[in-house]
Protein: TerD family protein
Organism: Polaromonas hydrogenivorans
Amino acid sequence: MSLTLSLSKPGDKAAKLSLNLNKDEKFTAKLLWDGGTDLDLHALLCVGVEGGQAGITSLDQILSTYNVRRKIAGSEVGVIDKNADGTFEIYQGALVHSADAIDGKLDGVDEWIRVDPARIPKKSGEFIEIPLIAMIHPQSGSQTFANVRNAQVQIVNSRGDTLLDISLSAQFGPFIGVQMGSIMIDSNGKAEFSQVGSGFMGDFNSVIEHFG
């Protein structure tokens, strides 16, 4: 199924689509785009109680290349260790990120995040929201999503079948960061895609504040 994501307005209730996954079935979110713009795919492991909002309370819940352990000006930042193949993960493989792609020139998928619901830590009555955030790298200068061509997120099941193909409307052109929907996993393990489209003008810290 293909859909075009529109910019959500305050007060909008996002429509949800069932992903028709078995309970605890692994799936992958793939980011594709064309051109020389450096995009990064990020995901947050937000936790909430049924009837409330999901959020993050720890750096351990942030799957981002910006959260990989490294040194900047002699100080260590980040909490995630990079694997030998360039991938990195949180919660022992609950979410695994591909090696970083610096542009959209690869043939096919540029970056991906694999989700293993069975490894996600949650208590009875809790649900999970995994916002999928695509952001233009700060070193790309003054570029916005108006400079990005054919940005898409695909949701693929464990057998390699594409369940959803999500593209962006032109409304996201002014932004440097875009929430390309969220994966919702309820307390019973049912997975859905929430059609929430948010735009960010600030850096990745503004995204963290939005979900904090």
Notes: The first strand starts at residue 2 and ends at 5. The CA atoms of residues 154 and 165 lie 5 Å apart.
